[in-house]
Amino acid sequence: MQRPKLQVTVRPSIAQLIYRKKISVRYRRLSKCKECKGTGGTASEPCYRCHCLGETLEDHELNLTFSPNDISCVDRICTVSNVGHEFEIGERDDIIVNIKVQDDREFHVVGKDIYCHVDITPLQAMFGCKIYFPRLDGGAFRKDISPSDKKSVSTKWPDGRVTREENVRWCQSHMALIGKGGGGYERGSAERGDMIYLVDVCTEQDRDGLEKMAIDRIHNLEKRIAGFRTQKNQAERDTREEFEKGKMAAISSLAKAIIPSIDSLEKALEAMASPADEAHRKGVALILEMQRNTLAQHGIEVIPALGKPFDPNVHEAIAVDTESDLPKNTVTNVLQTGYRHDGKLFRASMVRVRG
């Protein structure tokens, strides 16, 4: 039975498509188990990595880019080869990518041209004003509009009106600013369309509506800013957490490598009780001190035990001392040194306790 092709959906912005930015597609796909080579193991030796299925699910990220001839600013479906499910080792199926272009409240795509409406009041149109025109990349540019600009500079209209009478009526309430070659693409053509800014002169009755639109836009911008701030804070937290995890892993690896040698040196010092071993004792003690200092530099400290009250949180009693003069439940001898890192137990001290 043939497995259905994997389908994923992405929602790029118009700017991502036009500026040919990478479109990230994240999905999960089936891969043949690398442990059992897709066999699932045998009855006597089952594969525990894939639970005898012969396949595992893995996360994958695909970055899509399109050539100018293949860019379209409208919804479309494309197929990407050899990045889907793995049906044989080294052979993958295709995936179907549903590209749904994000709706944009400011920009409207018609063919390869992109239209943007900018509203001004009759007074602004009469006496001139400074207008900020939004750009696809999120920025804006400013242009001074004078009364003499109240005319159309293009015969391309988004609704297809081309007769002279209709154009004259349209020009009575519109101004147009055209950026040649600043628009979008259509599939099969590498030539970009135009970016057309339509300046709408609104009547006095529309002023309340414009104010509401401005307030709504401010709220939307505030939401976007809050979203960006949240993403920034989350990225910073993730970075700090990853750094701390890496740091802890490195310190743990260092401690596991050094502490056994410290244990051996401590036992060697205990065995050098003869006066003839004094010179060797000094050398071993110096090496021991250097290694302890190395641990201390990374926040790993010795847990005090000798002569201290027994603490089950950091001490592990492995023997009872009935002959010591120390008070009951006091550590009388340390058989293996314990350590902690940043207040957290790394290894408990093995001790003998007064019974």
From TrEMBL:
Primary location class: cytoplasm
Stated family: Belongs to the GrpE family.
Subunit structure: Homodimer.
Molecular function (Gene Ontology), one example: unfolded protein binding
GO cellular component: cytosol
Ranges where the Chaperone DnaJ C-terminal domain occurs: 79-197
Function statement: Participates actively in the response to hyperosmotic and heat shock by preventing the aggregation of stress-denatured proteins, in association with DnaK and GrpE. It is the nucleotide exchange factor for DnaK and may function as a thermosensor. Unfolded proteins bind initially to DnaJ; upon interaction with the DnaJ-bound protein, DnaK hydrolyzes its bound ATP, resulting in the formation of a stable complex. GrpE releases ADP from DnaK; ATP binding to DnaK triggers the release of the substrate protein, thus completing the reaction cycle.
Compartment list: Cytoplasm
Protein's recorded name: Protein GrpE
Record InterPro entries: DnaJ_C, GrpE, GrpE_CC, GrpE_head, HSP40/DnaJ_pept-bd
Top-level taxon: Bacteria
Keyword rRNA-binding applies: no
SUPFAM superfamilies: Coiled-coil domain of nucleotide exchange factor GrpE (SSF58014), Head domain of nucleotide exchange factor GrpE (SSF51064), HSP40/DnaJ peptide-binding domain (SSF49493)
GO biological process, one term: protein folding
Keywords assigned: Chaperone, Cytoplasm, Stress response
Keyword Chaperone: yes
Pfam families: DnaJ_C, GrpE
